[in-house]
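Example 5.3 — Cytochrome c domain-containing protein
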Amino acid sequence: MRGVFLLFLTFTLSFAESFITKEEYAAGLYHNPRGVGCHLCHGEAGEGKLIARYRDKGEGKIFAGKAINKLPFRDFYLKLNSRILGMPRYYLTDTEIQTLYYYLHREEFKHAASQPAKTQ
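Solution (predicted C-alpha cells):
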C-alpha cells in the first residue's frame, strides 16, 4: 500500500507544471498552511518542539508539539483530520496533506525515485 502511494505521489508531483517547484510549494505550505506554520510547533523537520513550560497547581508541566516526521502516511492523514487539543484545524485538502507529508519525507521520496525499478 505504501509503495503504491509513494509511486503515485512521486509520479503526480514530478509531472505537475508550475511556476514554483514541488519543494518550494511543500516548504511554503509547511511554513504557512493557514496562518500558523507547522514548524512553529513541530520543528523545522517535524521532529517535535517544546512550546512552553508552565506550572499547574504547583506541578511543572510542558506543552510541546509532537514529532510528526516518523508517522506513517495513514496516521499523519488521520491526525490532520482529527480534533487534537492545542492544534489548530486547518481544513486541508487531500492534496495539501500529501504535499505536507512529502515535505517531511522528501529525501526518502528522492531516494526511492532514484532507485532502479525491480524486475520480477
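Remark. The beta strands are 49-56, 59-65.
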